Structure formats: structure tokens, C-alpha cells
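Predict both folds.
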Amino acid sequence: MRVARLLIVAVAAKAPGWAQAACAEYLKRMPRGFETALETVRPEPRSSGKPLERLLALEAARIRERLPRGARLVALDERGRELNTAQFAAQLRRWLDDGPPTAFAIGGPDGLDPTLRREAALELRLSALTLPHALAQVLLCEQLYRAASLLGGHPYHRA
């Protein structure tokens, strides 16, 4: 059985304890065959006086440093495509069948660098609502767990 490698890279300061606990719980529950990790990269200080384009480019460079070689990038963005759970699970299955690791990037307070978004295989929107970054991390972890459960025939996806 091929191991599915999934990585979440989030531009964020330390998440609150409740968010860390929730993400850890969902990632721990991932079905066998899914190797999933969450890593954070430091946001660029907004008080530095640097132009926004430079701030985003520096954050994008930190994200790229964490990506596994040959990884498929999924950029989380408010303008991205919104998928329901079944569509997300089906897309995840296609990616897993294709082979390379899949990395999900969550931007900082101003989103992701446009160049990084263009490099992505998919721009994905978690919700039409504005979400705090910690909650977006939890939601993505939960949806990855839900999709993996659906793919494995586990009843969690109906909850």
C-alpha cells in the first residue's frame, strides 16, 4: 500500500492551545497509510515598513523551503475553488493516485504571495466566511481527516 504524504504549511505565530490540540487530534486519527504533518513558518512583521509585496514574497520563500521535493501545492485562498466534502475526497484520491506528496499552504494575515498561488495545482477556499488562521488550520486538518475517512469507507464522513 502506498503511503499518502500530506503536509500543511501555515504562515502563523504560535497557534492557541485549543487549535494545536484540535489539529493534533485530527492528524493523530488519520487512517493508516496517511502520513500527515502540520508545520508553521514565521510571519514577516507587518511593522517592518517593508512593502506588502516584499512581506508576502519573504513568507512564500519560507513556505517553499518546507515543501518536499516535487510536491503538489494547494494554496488556500479566499478566491479559490470551494469543494464539498465528497468533491474534496475525490480530488484527494486523484492526487494520492498520482503519487507526489501534496502540500497545503495557508498564508499569513494578508494571504499568500500571488506568485506562489500561481504555482499551485489548485487554489482552494475553505469557506466564504473570513476565518481566523488558527481556525483555518483546524478546519483543514478536520477536512483532511474526513476525506481520508470517506476514502476508507469509515462512517465519520456522515457526521
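Second protein follows, with its predicted C-alpha cells after the sequence.
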Amino acid sequence: MSTLRVGIASYEEMKAMTMAVARGQRKLALEEPRVWFPSTESFAKILSAGNRDLLRVLAEKAPGSLDELAQLTGRKKSNLSRTLKTMANYGLVRLERGARGRIAAKVVHDLIELELPLGRRDFAA
């Protein structure tokens, strides 16, 4: 698998970076995060202890459907569906159609690295 590098940046910082890249004024370095969270609180919520347990179950047991995952975790299917869609939006899991059209989640990365600046960064530069 691979490492997912994530960072914390405000909406304004992310927009400035995206615009600078689009205008050709800035290139992203290979080691820079490609996934951004708007706050440490949002990062902590997505990667709470319960959600890290969910990722562990996905990685170790590889359930073939949300029904199977619900049985393994004791969580409701509707809750799992919402959580997994959010995780997929951040690149933590990939949602795939399995046998008979069932949705299954697959862990994409085996390590997450957080870049946490202590001050505001100038993403446009």
C-alpha cells in the first residue's frame, strides 16, 4: 500500500494554493499533501478512535459488503454508509461494487502522515 499525506489549511489557503497552481505560479512538491482538512477538529473527527477501528477491520477482514461490515463492527449500515462516503471523499477508502452490486469498502493506504503547520502558510508563493 502507500502513505497518504494530509494537511490542515483553511478554505482561503486551499483556494490560494489551487489558484496559484492553476495559473502556473506554483508547482506542488512530491512530498506535499494532496488531501487537506479545514481544521484539526475535522481531521480528528474523521480519524476518531472508532473510525480508526473501522479502518483496521476493513484492512484485516476485507468484508465483501456493508452488511458484512455491519456484522463485524456492530454499527448500523446507514451509519457505515455515511462514514465510508466521507472517508472516500478524503481518499481514506475506496468504495467498490462487489458481487450482486453490493458496495464494499477497501482501505487505500496503510499509513497517514499529517502536516500540521503552527502558523499560516502562504500557499500562493
